[in-house]
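MODEL INPUT / OUTPUT PAIR
PAIR INDEX: 1
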Amino acid sequence: MEIERKYLIDKVPIDLNTCKSRRIEQGYLSTEPVVRVRRDNDAYFLTYKSKGLMVREEYNLPLTKESYEHLREKADGRLITKTRYEIPLALCMPDDSGLIIELDFFEGELAPLILAEVEFPNEELAHAFVAPDWFGEDVTFSSDYHNSTLSRK
């Protein structure tokens, strides 16, 4: 189960050079249901996501590089590329929850879009979450900012 909140970001007040980062490339074989292939640095996955906004089922299956490259060619819409930075929430505000901000900088046609996602262990924490003051609009309940939707625009 994936439980996450998502926000638009205008400016990042943190030095990202100190944060762990990953290069991500993903394409969508289907957007209803969501079936995607992803390269995450040197790891490859096939993912299924159920319908939903803040709470969705998610299943990841490992792929070989060859399988990923074969399936990537079958993706519909645009291939999404982004750099993801992992920022402990405690760097931004007093926090002992261990939550991580995943900050995505989109490239290509989607630049200069920046989205922040925070995943939660349960819905109660997700609903109670108070975002850092540099987070912009909460787009958690808008499917417009799902990567599967962005791949089609």
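PAIR INDEX: 2
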Amino acid sequence: MACAFANLKAVLDDVFGIEIPMDEIERATTLEGLADYLGDKLRRTPNAISPDVVAAFLDIRRAVAVVMKRPKSEIQTSTNWKALLPETSAGRRQVWREIQKISQASLPRLAWPGWTWGVMYTVGMMMLLPLAYVGFGQGTYWIGAILLLLALKVFVTIGRATGTELPHQTVAESARYVATERWTPSKVAYSPWTSAEVLKPLRELFENESGEIMHV
């Protein structure tokens, strides 16, 4: 039993970002009672994590569990994306698209590493300059300008579509990005949490693989 409470405390500390005393968890006999305690503590915690961030994390966690076929309990806010996604470029792009689709989260696209952009820029300019020269050299400046713009558009589109660089290191960073907080500390000295808002993520955290709710 002590081990179960310790695991529960670790999950709650991780998701809600606050230190929860073990005796308070042991004292709770229902999810509703635990939600009341957590809601009160979060409201009294300056710069506490917002409900939107927790909701975004749970959406992303659910999608990763489905796509990667892994237990949700293994996916924490501190989990590194590199430990979740495939190492191959094609596999990583496909999985990232599926995670965005299932979670319906506005995650940013995978990008090219900086050095790759440098190589692409150099090669691209070597291809663009002759096209522009053909148009400008014949006095048809508008043709050269159109060719230049079209080539630039293709160049940028390819770069965005085939990137493999992860936009964030951890799942928590992605959750904060989706919640539009982007790691910016809130200046508000209170949290908007209510017991009902705490109860919603609690139910999902206590839901087992069969869809049943495990009671405290």
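PAIR 2 NOTE: The two ends are 11 Å apart (CA to CA).
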